[in-house]
Specification:
- By secondary structure, this protein is of the alpha+beta class.
- The strands form 3 sheets. It has a 10-stranded mixed beta sheet, with helices on both faces.
- Helix 6 crosses helix 7.
- The two termini are about 30 Å apart.
- The mean pLDDT is about 95.
Length: about 450
């Protein structure tokens, strides 16, 4: 058993800083690189891609990234863990193998975690007694079943542990919890058991700190953000983990950003409901037990963590088609920019009404005045406003109404208030609205599977 491992965050979401994983494997020593690519809406996007092309459905950035980092990771014996397999982790794994072949890399093992995608098993789940009720409304999934775009179970760390035990150099999963990516190497390296809930909770909280990338090293920091050095080359977080469950959050010394009790604390508050019950498939972590201490420059010690047994359920993340939306914008200049924008908004709404169009919602924002704070925005002196952008959006289950809305923006330029600009890119087009359906599923109804690919 190792006395310490270093786990580095490489991505906080699909579209995060492309250089981050390369920096993590080249700017210092690490043992694991973990990369979180998935969000709820991402799964539906990937499912649509797979529906069009059965070879797709994973984060397409991964093969190109592997061309850069795979030789380095192989040489340094850095293991890679990512949930970027999306809805097609097998194809993602084959794409990585193809990259390895092109680079002349031999002896590479890739572990693939499968079984989370249950979209084609909804009838089976219903027949086995699970209604997959919406966790917020209590409705049965039958109300949206025919409009489902994706349905994925959140697996935890132990399927990844199995892949590591099978010798995987790279582990690619589907919808695994963000925290499980970091917890898994701790379980594997330190031999933690499934009933050691304080340890599992510690690893889970470490994963929570790492899951959003640089958000724990000074990015998006609400405190003294101007004191954060070198945002251009910001360092992503690294967890130095110990068998006792204690760990230190740090970063590579040569990179920007900073690691303080404040930056780590702010990330700990991210997406938290009841702090005493942070529920994952592996455990229920108690965030109120966390103790933090600055133990050096860019080093925060995290300790004292406790937790409880896991629940008998997996969370299921579903998405479904819920109509259409479109947005358009126009910019009005001084003088009386806000008055002009408000007048244009009322003119447009009246025209939509006269056309007898059907909308579930019409929302107007005046960028530069209330787009962030809405009704809490204080009144402004119009003489001091240089410009205001009117941004108006509609949502409807009637495609034709949304399409016609898109044809009513440009006419305002010559048939509304003066001093208008900012119309570019053509008419707004209807976009499909993807809605979220969270549910619970008894763990006994689904089983993760691990397959190995090798070159």
């Amino acid at each position: 058993m190792k006395d310490k491992i270093r786990i580095a965050s490489g991505q906080g979401f699909w579209g995060d800083l492309i250089e981050a994983p390369f920096y993590q494997v080249t700017k210092g020593d690490i043992d694991y690189l973990v990369m979180d690519y998935l969000a709820e809406v991402t799964m539906s996007i990937l499912q649509k891609q797979k529906n069009k092309n059965p070879e797709l459905g994973y984060a397409k950035d991964i093969p190109e990234l592997m061309k850069r980092i795979l030789p380095i990771c192989k040489e340094k014996k850095i293991k890679i863990i990512t949930n970027g397999g999306g809805v097609n982790p097998i194809s993602c794994g084959k794409a990585v193998l193809k990259v390895a072949e092109s680079l002349g890399i031999k002896g590479l093992k890739i572990g693939i975690v499968l079984g989370d995608n249950i979209q084609d098993k909804i009838d089976e789940m219903l027949a086995n007694g699970s209604e997959l009720k919406n966790m917020e409304t209590g409705e049965s999934i039958l109300t949206v079943k025919e409009r489902l775009l994706s349905a994925n179970v959140y697996f935890g760390a132990f399927p990844i542990v199995e892949a590591l035990k099978n010798g995987a150099d790279v582990v690619i999963t589907g919808r695994t919890t963000d925290t499980g990516l970091t917890l898994a190497p701790m379980i594997y390296e330190f031999g933690w058991k499934q009933n050691e809930y304080n340890l599992l909770s510690a690893g889970t909280i470490a994963g929570h700190i790492l899951e959003c990338g640089a958000q724990s090293t000074g990015g998006n920091f609400l405190g003294d953000w101007e004191s954060v050095p070198n945002f251009a080359e910001i360092g992503f977080p690294i967890c130095e983990a110990f068998p006792t469950g204690e760990f230190i959050i740090t970063k590579h010394e040569s990179l920007g950003g900073k690691v303080t009790v404040e930056t780590v604390s702010e990330q700990l508050l991210y997406e938290i409901g009841n702090p005493e019950e942070y529920i994952t498939p592996d455990c229920v972590a108690d965030f109120s037990s966390i103790k933090l201490k600055q133990s050096g420059e860019n080093r925060v010690r995290v300790f004292g963590i406790t937790g409880k047994p896991e629940t008998e359920f997996y969370k299921v993340s579903c998405s479904y088609a819920d109509g259409f939306s479109a947005s358009g914008s126009l910019t009005y200049s001084w003088p009386k920019a806000l008055t002009k924008a408000k007048a244009a908004d009322q003119i447009l709404r009246k025209r939509l009404e006269l056309l007898n169009l059907s909308f579930d919602e019409i929302r107007s924002e005046f960028v530069g005045y209330n787009s962030c704070h809405g009704p809490l925005a204080p009144e402004l002196d119009e003489d001091l406003i240089n410009e205001i952008q009117l941004r108006i959006s509609v949502r409807s289950h009637d495609y034709n109404s949304v399409e016609r809305f898109g044809k009513e923006i440009a006419p305002l330029i010559l048939t509304g208030p003066p001093s208008v600009t900012g119309f570019a890119g053509g008419r707004p087009k209807p976009n499909e609205v993807v809605a979220y359906w969270p549910a619970l599923l008894p763990k006994k109804l689904v089983e993760p599977k691990v397959e190995m690919l090798e070159i």
